[in-house]
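Reviewers of the previous submission asked for a worked example of the structure-prediction workflow described in the proposal, so we include one complete record here. The input consisted solely of the amino acid sequence. No template or homolog information was supplied to the procedure at any stage.
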Amino acid sequence: MNRYRPAPHIIRRRRIALLVVLALLTWGIWSGVAAIAGLFGGGKKAVEISACAPGVVSVTAVIGDGEKHQDAFLNNVKPYIWFTLVNNGKVACKFNAAPATQFFRIKTGDQVIWTSEQCDRKGLAESAEVVLKPGKPQSSPPSQWFRVYSSGGGCGEGQAPAFVGTYTLQAEVNKVVSGNLETFELQ
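From that input alone, the workflow returned the following structure tokens.
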């Protein structure tokens, strides 16, 4: 009886095809096991986000209409003040930006005209951590400044009005002072 033996190149092609099929089967089984393990909590563990290292967070003071920066305000317009935080590091980190750690100061020259330190600060949260992603600015909600001096009696309406002139705004959050002095004009 004469047995037919395929040519060597056909045997080689069959072996390569068999290896490809085996590789695909192995990959399919491995993927299925990984997917099932992921369903039952065997996947990657959540990465713990740690506190921001000193010097990593920068604060920028902003004054404007509550949505965008503005540097001059007509007589009847009350400006809004806020700050922006930026994580200048390479990984996300937690930063305490609680209201009790936030301060604003408005000056003309060296004279402090208004400071939020003289506002009623009772009941402000001492801790409110925010997660700052690298390079992604995060802004605080704007607060209205009533164009007044602050004093031991408070910092809101009813205080002595600020005069027409040029002022600067500086913010501080969790002992990080803004790197800018935001200059603006009251008209």
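The mean pLDDT is 89. We consider this example representative of the routine output the project will generate in years two and three.
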